[in-house]
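quick one before i forget lol
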Amino acid sequence: MVTLKKNPRSKLYELLQAQIRNEFHASQQYVALAVFYDGKDLPQLAKFFYRQSLEERNHAMALVQYLLDTDHHVEIPDVPEVRNDFADIREPVALALEQEKEVESDFRQIAKAAREDENYTGEQFVQWFLREQVEEIAAMNRLLNVVDMAKGDVFAVEQFLYREEVTDENDPAMPPVAGGAL
């Protein structure tokens, strides 16, 4: 039996492994938000969050690919329980915004660990995720502002999302995704 030696666990490795869990959890939470909106016959909000779910899954798999490429053992984690019930259409968007802010904080910690470890390729890898979080936080802030300005008119929010539909972007700078991006 041949055993392959893997790179040792570092603080950066531990944070990246934890972030895989966070990204899969975000993906599942976004599915729950999409299903909530689908159940309320709000197809544009549902579509928005289904797309967000796939994006978060792809982020998790990009982290997996990076760890594989750097000869680290990868563990696919379970995910924490997701929230499924909301009082109104605003709550899920507010939850999504807070989730994106937490992810941004997580990636800042990962970047800091890479820098402290003098892991320059790791630091460079994380830069894409930091730039992505600027976009994600801005998008959720914008959607929450639209929901607030609509003052309960869910159809105004639906029209906004239909009119401002974001197409699936193929970012050539995105790190490779294990198994391919969906």
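fyi The radius of gyration is 18 Å.
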